[in-house]
């Protein structure tokens, strides 16, 4: 498939190498690059934590912590960072800086020899997205508190930072980021869609180069903290974009590329196989988007009362429904269509599990589109609060930039439905474009792939229509 | 340690310890300079006015910082000195200023229908 | 042969989908029981380019309580003169209407009113505009101005794209 073109326009093998510009390359190779951004975000998050602590019980819409985390950070992640630049956030994330410092003993310089801490290996059986899936799902149980109560956000962030630190003391490198961080899973999944990637340039150079300094590290930098093998990995999912491999490669063989969105969705190699864990991540993200939309952007007071736990029964009901919906109902529906696909294709040999997993990746673009739509529904009506909280971050009557009394002003909300719908349709296009390709990968010949694709096309269309109804109907 | 490492460590400390100390210090100083008392507004269900009794010296200029840390709007009125703030939004801060020129006990109250027990949201200013 | 049957079947399925999409959306299935007064307006000159019905005057009494509006979905036809009385049942609430960019607010015992001509079609969210509690940003309701053509256009577009993809897949040789 060397001439495979997305929508008949963009060659899937097309890459635009950003690091061919001297400045970008120099930046990537400088040890200041992630560090300064991390320190800047550390500063921001220290203020967020302070505001969360002082804000306590008060209304979230005038609190710096709540607004920065759930309006600015979340929306930036979903709208720009992840779809555009994969795990760009992980590049500048301050959460693991304490454990990094503890392991390395240095902030800027490169420590030679063994890293500090116990350096244990994470158990093989847990080396997947499952823990991330459950951690994220469990986090969303409390979304009725995190997103509105400053102190709840304080606790959430505090736990993340603390666990990151402790994990770093016990386990090697970025084990926390790979297998525990609640923000990690969806970034990994949707990074497969991203339009940027870090990859090696010339495989021949890598083959000849021993020892592989990008994996073991050298005096210029550390071996890949995310335990990737920079010389041959092919999927964005677990690359933290930390840029260490640019520093450790003596042949300048690492590249930061722009690429057509979504090419990782077709990757299925022995080293980086498709898996049920990522399939479930896709289901969970879709399911959470539905529940969140109903609870936070829908007009139904009953659901809101359940989510904010006015009664214990209601809250337990929400948790139960939420869990069952995400872990059973959505995968169940998908399974049904996977089964139909097998029936339609007429192929008896292909295992159902393979069909199920392969097709689940078609939910990645669509899921991302849904989340972008949902996030537009957060930022457009409520973005104006940001002006207020920037001037008065602790609600103490400060007025740093003179905008403390800026009134709540919805922006472009007359277009909200159209924007949400249009985003959805664009991402739906990507879903069906990659969907048929997945079908080709699943079934041995073209006629089977064709027939097997039809139920899936139907399902994706149904999901899109359902979301159009939620957004606009 | 190289010079760059030292710079990195300094930046780290700036971002954490110094930021926290700075924020807390500036606010403490600001309050000492500007206000006589700080008053916290919450609906009676969640703690009511705090403190519910304010004591100020006779004849002095008084500045009260009213901080609404609640999730609903409140108001403030001190009828005997003719000061009022019609609405203090949740998470916002208002300042009132007057001269305590008569002694005695004077009521202050919330003027926004903020909760079921809104009518109980009252306190007293004692001038002596 | 088998191939063709399956293609036919799926085309049929998508066609049914299309028809389903053509049905009124559930938000408007019930004819707004909340609408108190509906009467034909005296002046027939108000614009009504697409809807067959004559413009009417509609009055809604919307009760606001933490954190829900009752009724939460109101439905009118394009060209209708809409009057809204906002009544608060607990604390200070507001109502801001997306798309029409108008707002009012109500205290307990002191209601707010809005009057406007529903000349834009589609679904618009109305939001509480006075901080009324922790879930205040999530306190919303929908105004549906029929015919909700944007929604149908988007759905038709989606289905057209699905059909195009199907055609492409079926016609593809290698
Ligand atoms: S995985 Fe989590 S903790 Fe690690 S860098 Fe990314 S967001 Fe930060
Ligand atoms: S491959 Fe590893 S070292 Fe290279 S940017 Fe990704 S996470 Fe960092
Ligand atoms: Cu009050
Ligand atoms: Cu309200």
UniProtKB/TrEMBL annotation, chain A:
The keyword Transmembrane applies. The chain crosses the membrane at residues 32-56, 62-82, 130-148, 154-171, 279-296, 316-340, 361-380, 415-436, 452-472. GO terms for cellular component: plasma membrane. Residues 68-107, 156-192 form the 4Fe-4S ferredoxin-type domain. It is found in: Cell membrane. InterPro entries: 4Fe4S_Fe-S-bd, NosR_regulator. The keyword Membrane applies. This is 4Fe-4S ferredoxin-type domain-containing protein. The lineage of its organism: Bacteria, Bacillati, Actinomycetota, Actinomycetota incertae sedis, Candidatus Hakubellales.
TrEMBL record, chain B:
Signal peptide: none annotated. It is found in: Cell envelope. One of its GO terms (cellular component) is cell envelope. Keywords: Copper, Membrane, Metal-binding, Transmembrane, Transmembrane helix. It comes from Candidatus Hakubella thermalkaliphila. Subunits I and II form the functional core of the enzyme complex. Electrons originating in cytochrome c are transferred via heme a and Cu(A) to the binuclear center formed by heme a3 and Cu(B). SUPFAM superfamilies: Cupredoxins (SSF49503). This is Cytochrome aa3 subunit 2. Its main location: other. PANTHER family: CYTOCHROME C OXIDASE SUBUNIT II, NITROUS-OXIDE REDUCTASE. Pfam families: Cupredoxin_1. The keyword Metal-binding applies. One of its GO terms (molecular function) is copper ion binding. Residues 32-128 form the Cytochrome oxidase subunit II copper A binding domain. The chain crosses the membrane at residues 6-26. It catalyses: 4 Fe(II)-[cytochrome c] + O2 + 8 H(+)(in) = 4 Fe(III)-[cytochrome c] + 2 H2O + 4 H(+)(out). PROSITE patterns: COX2, COX2_CUA. The keyword Metal-binding applies.
UniProtKB/TrEMBL annotation, chain C:
Keywords: Copper, Membrane, Metal-binding, Signal, Transmembrane, Transmembrane helix. Its main location: other. SUPFAM superfamilies: Cupredoxins (SSF49503). It catalyses: 4 Fe(II)-[cytochrome c] + O2 + 8 H(+)(in) = 4 Fe(III)-[cytochrome c] + 2 H2O + 4 H(+)(out). The chain crosses the membrane at residues 151-171. It is found in: Cell envelope. InterPro entries: CcO_II-like_C, Copper_CuA, Cupredoxin, EfeO_Cupredoxin, NosZ/Cyto_c_oxidase_sub2. GO terms for molecular function: copper ion binding; cytochrome-c oxidase activity. Residues 1-29 form the signal peptide. Residues 46-157 form the Cytochrome oxidase subunit II copper A binding domain. GO terms for cellular component: cell envelope; membrane. Subunits I and II form the functional core of the enzyme complex. Electrons originating in cytochrome c are transferred via heme a and Cu(A) to the binuclear center formed by heme a3 and Cu(B). This is Cytochrome aa3 subunit 2. It comes from Candidatus Hakubella thermalkaliphila. The lineage of its organism: Bacteria, Bacillati, Actinomycetota, Actinomycetota incertae sedis, Candidatus Hakubellales.
């Amino acid at each position: 498939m060397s001439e495979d073109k997305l929508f008949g326009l963009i060659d899937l093998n097309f890459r635009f190498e950003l690091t061919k510009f001297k400045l970008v390359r120099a930046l990537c190779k400088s040890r200041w690059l992630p560090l300064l951004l991390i320190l800047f975000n550390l500063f921001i998050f220290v203020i967020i934590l302070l505001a969360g602590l002082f804000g306590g019980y008060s209304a979230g819409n005038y609190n710096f912590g709540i607004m920065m985390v759930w309006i600015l950070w979340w929306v930036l992640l979903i709208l720009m960072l992840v779809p555009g630049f994969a795990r760009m956030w992980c590049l500048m994330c301050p959460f693991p800086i304490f454990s990094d410092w503890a392991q390395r003993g240095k902030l800027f310089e490169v420590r030679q020899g063994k890293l500090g801490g116990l350096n244990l290996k994470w158990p093989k059986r847990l080396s997947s997205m499952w823990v991330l899936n459950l951690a994220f799902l469990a986090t969303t149980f409390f979304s009725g508190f995190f997103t509105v109560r400053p102190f709840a956000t304080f606790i959430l962030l505090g736990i993340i930072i603390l666990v990151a630190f402790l994990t770093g003391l016990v386990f090697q490198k970025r084990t926390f980021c790979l297998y525990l961080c609640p923000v990690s899973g969806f970034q990994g999944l949707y990074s497969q869609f991203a339009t940027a990637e870090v990859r090696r340039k010339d495989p021949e150079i890598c083959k000849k180069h021993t020892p592989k300094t990008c994996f073991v590290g050298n005096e210029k930098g550390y071996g890949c903290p995310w335990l990737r093998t920079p010389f041959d990995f092919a999927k964005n999912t677990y690359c933290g974009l930390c840029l260490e491999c640019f520093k450790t490669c003596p042949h300048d063989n690492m590249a930061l590329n722009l690429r057509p969105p979504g090419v990782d969705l077709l990757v299925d190699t022995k080293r980086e196989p498709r898996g049920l864990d990522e399939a479930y991540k896709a289901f969970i993200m879709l399911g959470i988007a539905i529940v969140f939309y109903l609870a936070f952007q829908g007009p139904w007071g009953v659901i809101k009362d359940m989510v904010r736990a006015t009664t214990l029964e209601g809250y337990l009901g929400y948790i139960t429904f939420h869990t069952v919906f995400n872990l059973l109902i959505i995968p169940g529906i998908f399974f049904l269509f996977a089964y139909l696909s097998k029936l339609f294709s007429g192929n008896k040999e292909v295992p159902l599990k393979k069909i199920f997993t392969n097709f689940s990746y078609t939910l990645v673009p669509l899921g991302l589109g849904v989340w972008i739509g949902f996030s537009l529904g957060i930022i457009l009506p409520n973005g104006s609060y940001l002006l207020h909280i920037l001037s008065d971050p602790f609600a103490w009557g400060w007025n740093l930039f003179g905008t403390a009394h800026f009134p709540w002003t919805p922006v472009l909300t007359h277009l909200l439905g159209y924007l949400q719908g249009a985003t959805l349709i664009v991402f739906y296009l990507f879903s069906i474009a990659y969907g048929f390709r997945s079908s080709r990968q699943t079934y041995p010949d073209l006629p089977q792939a064709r027939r097997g694709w039809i139920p899936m096309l139907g399902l994706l269309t149904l999901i899109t229509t359902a979301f159009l109804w939620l957004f606009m109907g | 340690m190289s010079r760059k490492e030292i710079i990195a460590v300094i930046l780290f400390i700036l971002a954490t310890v110094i930021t926290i100390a700075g924020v807390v210090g500036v606010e403490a100083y600001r309050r000492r300079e500007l206000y006589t008392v700080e008053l916290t507004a919450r609906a009676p269900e969640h703690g009511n006015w705090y403190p519910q009794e304010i004591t100020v010296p006779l004849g002095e200029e008084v500045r009260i910082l009213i901080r609404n840390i609640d999730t609903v709007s409140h108001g403030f009125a001190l009828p005997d000195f003719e000061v009022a703030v019609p609405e203090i939004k949740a998470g916002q801060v208002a300042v009132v200023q007057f001269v305590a020129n008569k002694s005695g006990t004077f009521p202050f109250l919330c003027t926004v229908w903020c909760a079921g027990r809104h009518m109980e949201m009252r306190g007293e200013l004692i001038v002596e | 042969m088998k191939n063709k049957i399956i293609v036919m079947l799926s085309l049929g399925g998508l066609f049914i989908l299309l028809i389903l999409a053509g049905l009124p959306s559930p938000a408007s299935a019930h004819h707004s029981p909340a609408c108190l007064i509906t009467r034909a307006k005296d002046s027939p000159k108000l614009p009504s380019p697409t809807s067959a019905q004559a413009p009417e005057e509609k009055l809604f009494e919307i009760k606001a309580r933490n954190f829900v509006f009752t009724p939460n979905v109101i439905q009118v036809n394009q060209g209708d003169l809409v009057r809204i009385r906002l009544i608060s049942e607990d604390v200070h609430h507001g109502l801001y209407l997306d798309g029409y960019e108008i707002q009012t607010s109500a205290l307990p015992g002191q209601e707010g009113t809005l009057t406007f001509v529903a000349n834009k079609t589609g679904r618009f969210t109305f939001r509480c505009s006075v901080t009324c509690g922790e879930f205040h940003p999530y306190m919303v309701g929908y105004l549906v101005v029929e015919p909700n053509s944007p929604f149908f256009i988007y759905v038709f577009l989606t289905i057209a794209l699905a059909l195009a993809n199907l055609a492409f897949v079926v016609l593809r040789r290698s």
